[in-house]
Amino acid sequence: MKGGWLTETRERRSPIGTQTDGGPGPLDGHEAATILERSRAVVDPELRAAIDSLPGSMRRVALYHFGWEHPDGTPAAGHAGKAIRPALVLTAAAALGGPGARTAAVRAAAAVELVHNFTLLHDDVMDRDTTRRHRPTAWTVFGDPDAILAGDALQALALRLLAEDPHPAAAAAGVRLANCVIELCAGQHADTAMEQRAPAEVTLDETLAMAEAKTGALLGCACALGGLYAGAAAEDVAALDAFGREAGLAFQLIDDVIGIWGDPSRTGKPAGADLAARKKSLPVVAALASGTPAAAELAELYRAPYEKEDLERTVLAVERAGGRDWAQVQAADRMARAMQELARAVPEPEAAGGLLALAEFVTRRSS
Length: 367
Fold this sequence. Notes:
- The chain has one domain: Farnesyl Diphosphate Synthase.
- The protein is an all-alpha fold.
- It is globular.
- The protein is about 70% helix and about 0% strand.
- It has 17 helices and 2 strands.
- Helix 13 crosses helix 15 and helix 16 runs antiparallel to helix 17.
- A hairpin with a 2-residue loop joins strand 1 and strand 2.
- One of its GO terms (biological process) is isoprenoid biosynthetic process.
């Protein structure tokens, strides 16, 4: 049965792309969009209640970051993100435990989203990103200290939600999420340390390991928490974690492609922002390791201070050195691995469909 749905799904899937032309994703993305909307509807009230419990100074920053308030505290109908991670928690719980497990896992889903946004607040400060979700980042509005402290508070809220949850799986979920936060911090440390090193010193293997820690770990944790709340066997929880990690790497690969070639009107970030910051993203490191003349040109450009007039030349160098093609092939490979892990954990095609739809959605996005 496992091989059946897995083979069938492979046959209907086309190679992964970034959809930078705005074209449709698999099954036009409708199933994933419906899952995300339903997840947001049940998780948002839990998030709002948690954030409303914060002291005023940190609450104001958090509400702005989530898009629910303007800087002056007036209500906003902003975009609070896609809620992919909480959707993974709820969908994994439902896949192995049915609707009851999904309902029981709402707090865990909110906790994962709080941790995700803790990382975003901190990353924006460290990376000096000035735009997120089509508006100024929190640190540019409130300053570094307030943005950092608000992020710290979101992480604490996440762990408090699980500590106060009477569900039998909450304690194990809290430990797992805490370990994930440590892994996220290690991944972010590796990322920032790489930025201080010469381009030729950074290897593709360590960049992939960093990406798994920074991105794959939380998606894997989200899926695993869903399994825990469903009462799944340890081997199924492990397979769900591996599924999320592999899908997370595919996600990061495509995110890095979008960071270079994405449409700013859809990404909410300036064109070529990663290249301007001289980030050693996966397509860039792959291009630098290609040994081509374009790789040598890219290394020279990365050694020099950023000049706006060199942006187009840098983009072309990454592409000519094979960085874009490599990232897209790798993303497809990681998705294939993710599907294998999903088939181990959830052999029933109908039950696995929601998780598969979410995984394909995040690797076929345009922003």
